[in-house]
Design goal:
The structure holds two protein chains of two kinds.
Chain A: H1 10-19, H2 47-82, H3 87-92, H4 101-108, H5 112-141, H6 148-154, H7 157-160, H8 163-173, H9 180-187, H10 199-227, H11 231-239, H12 244-255, H13 257-272, H14 276-281, H15 293-302, H16 309-339
Helix pairs in contact in A: 2-16, 4-16, 5-10, 5-13, 10-13, 13-16, 15-16
Chain B: H1 2-40, H2 62-103, H3 108-118, H4 123-137, H5 143-167, H6 171-179, H7 184-195, H8 197-213, H9 216-221, H10 230-239, H11 245-255, H12 257-265, H13 267-277
Helix pairs in contact in B: 1-11, 2-5, 2-8, 2-10, 2-11, 3-5, 5-8, 6-7, 8-13, 10-11
Classes of the chains: A mainly alpha, B mainly alpha.
């Protein structure tokens, strides 16, 4: 069928034309233009509309899927956040709109401001440290010494483990009485820290575990960015007498700026929604000391005998707004990078 | 002459130092993994000893006996859910990737955009929405419901991977199939899919791993189910307050096996998945 190249980008059209002369004929992609084209095994219907139909037939399952399994849950979430649900009306329907009562309740809740603050601290400290360490390790492993490939692969392990595995391992390592971390600290004369059981350390503890999980991701992305920097730039710098430190700050770091932006924004989107690690290690506690929007929404919705879906979904909606803002900035940044 | 020899040796020596430093860094990074394995072999009576035993010399297999006793149904469920999620993901993602890469539907850009946004939605929001919808549909606490929910983690990623990969397939290859009279569907099945084996492997691996690792959907949509995945098995161990850390860590080790297998057998696919899709909860 010669119809498939229709309506594509200029570049792909020309490559298609090179392979198959008949496709060269009508190039404007208008439906009326292709009717009389002779093609090997061509159909009689307008090729462009046929190809559009075929194209959408292939994409249809995913479109239906997106509507049913993304749009519907999102809609249900929003709907829950705007109505006054009880357990009965949750099952039977018929809950009243209550304006934005769920939202005002949530904002007035004593947990709101701490949870917002923890969400921001957790997110920004995590991605900042993950990225700094990931970049340092990427630069280190980029030097191609013996075993560098194998060791770099081993660094992926934390990223591949199920989160519940990492979280429970860290929970035991950070145990106040018998954890290996406190044992190590005792060797250098530091008193035991109540990592998970004291309000002042709980957030730090979950951030440490989250950083450990996130380093591999940053390492891999920055490493791929390093691969795209041409080697002759470094050679020229060497000829000019630049040292390794100068090379990093004058060449590597500036040239990695697009990769940096993408990695940080993506990190932002994915760290905002971290739930498993915090829930398994501290359940947002003690008190609300490590509560973030994600754990709070879960706690409200599923953590009690009587679910409070109204406030749970209102918190979720606030969370998704934060994620979407970050996500849209990411998509913009990526487009800019592709364009340049 | 001696100075020439030192300059000849220095880079090699420096490389040796780097390898040593690399080993140390990797050891630090993987210490928690080692500790998990170590604790899984530690006797309950030694669990709270000071100093903790750094090597399980006087170890026990009790933790793994507990896994065999308690966790087999959970592991089986996870395997089943994982495989079903992979199947569903592939069936949805491969044709869509093909359409976006090669058939250029009008509005394809909007679809790609929707997929990008979809994978940024926090799991808790999906969980609440699914919970409400699943009650109505009667699939709460069923495995098909869990598979559906788990597939949402992987389908957008799958489409993006397939699109990226299939865009690289030369149009000439498809043109040749068309000259032979193959329909678009036939071209897809007999030409494009076999060539896209690597993409299929990458998508399958990640879909399986994410379904296997999922906790949020398991704990919200399957917590009342007869069959529950391994993440819930671990969670129950933790929640039982008996603090049998040997059993918990042994289960954790067993639950990590797919990740280990993945890394050993399919390392290049993993790196490709990270950079191409760059997604992870």
């Amino acid at each position: 069928m010669t119809t498939l190249e229709q309506g594509g980008s200029a570049a792909s059209r020309s490559s298609g034309a090179g392979a198959q002369p008949p496709a060269r004929a009508p190039q404007d992609g208008a439906r009326s233009s292709g009717g009389s084209r002779p093609g090997a095994g061509g159909r009689r219907r307008s090729p462009s509309s046929v190809s559009q139909l075929t194209a959408w037939a292939f994409a249809a399952p995913v479109v239906v899927y997106l509507l049913a399994f993304y749009a519907v849950p999102l809609y249900r979430n929003l709907d829950l956040s705007l109505r006054d649900y009880t357990v009965r009306s949750f099952v039977q329907g018929g809950a009243e709109f209550n304006d934005f009562a769920n939202y005002t309740t949530v904002v007035a809740d004593p947990t709101f401001w701490p949870a917002l603050w923890h969400t921001l601290v957790f997110t920004f400290v995590s991605i900042g440290v993950q990225f700094a360490l990931g970049m340092a390790l990427a630069v280190f492993f980029f030097q191609h010494f013996r075993l560098s490939t194998t060791l770099r692969a081993l660094f992926l392990v934390p990223w591949l483990l199920p989160l519940i595995v990492s979280a429970s391992t860290w929970a035991w390592m950070l145990n106040s009485d018998s954890g290996v971390v406190n044992y190590a600290l005792s060797l250098v004369g530091v008193d035991p820290v109540h990592w998970l059981t004291s309000p002042q350390w709980a957030l730090t503890s979950v951030i440490i575990a989250n950083i450990w999980i996130g380093i591999p991701f940053n390492l891999v992305i920055v490493y791929s960015g390093l691969q795209s920097i041409p080697a002759d730039v470094y050679e020229a710098a060497s000829l000019d007498g630049a040292g390794p430190w100068q090379k990093f700050w004058r060449i590597t770091f500036p040239l990695l700026r697009p990769v940096t932006a993408i990695t940080l924004l993506l990190g932002l989107v994915y760290t905002l929604k971290v739930f498993d690690i915090i829930w398994i290690m501290t359940r947002g506690g003690p008190g609300d000391s490590s509560q973030t929007f994600a754990t709070w929404a879960y706690d409200e919705s599923f953590g009690n005998v009587l679910p409070r879906f109204g406030s749970g979904s209102a918190i979720s909606t606030l969370l998704i707004l934060m994620a979407l803002v970050a996500g849209l900035v990411y998509i913009r940044a990526q487009h800019k990078q592709e364009a340049s | 002459m001696s100075s020439a020899r030192t300059t000849a040796l220095t880079p090699a020596a420096r490389r040796g130092t780097k390898t040593a430093l690399g080993l140390v860094l990797t050891a630090i990074m993987l210490f928690p993994v080692y500790w998990m394995v170590n604790v899984s072999f530690t006797k309950t009576s030694d669990m709270r000893r000071t100093p903790p035993s750094l090597i399980p010399l006087d170890g026990t297999l009790d933790g793994y006996r507990a896994v065999l006793r308690d966790q087999l149904p959970y592991l089986g469920t996870s395997l089943l859910v994982g495989v079903a999620t992979v199947a569903l993901t592939l069936v949805l993602a491969a044709p869509a990737g093909f359409a976006l890469a090669k058939l250029r539907p009008r509005g394809g850009g909007a679809l790609s955009f929707a997929l990008l946004v979809a994978q940024m939605i926090p799991g808790i929001i999906m969980a609440i929405g699914f919970y409400a919808a699943f009650i109505k549909l009667g699939v709460l606490n069923t495995l098909p419901g869990l598979v559906l929910a788990d597939s949402t983690i992987a389908v957008p990623f799958g489409v993006l991977i397939y699109t990226a990969f299939m865009s690289g397939i030369p149009d000439e290859l498809m043109a040749a199939a068309r000259v032979d009279g193959a329909s678009t569907w036939r071209t897809f099945v007999s030409v494009v899919l076999p060539v896209s084996r690597n993409a299929t492997v990458t998508v399958s691996l990640f879909a399986f791993l994410w379904a296997w690792s999922d906790f949020i959907f398991a704990s919200t949509l399957a917590s009342g189910s007869q069959l529950q995945p391994i993440t819930m098995g671990i969670y129950r161990y933790i929640g039982n307050n008996n603090q049998e850390w040997g059993s918990i860590m042994a289960t954790a080790v067993v639950a990590s096996v797919p990740a280990a297998v993945l890394l050993v057998l399919a390392q290049r696919y993993v790196a490709a998945g990270v950079t191409a899709g760059a997604v992870k909860d």
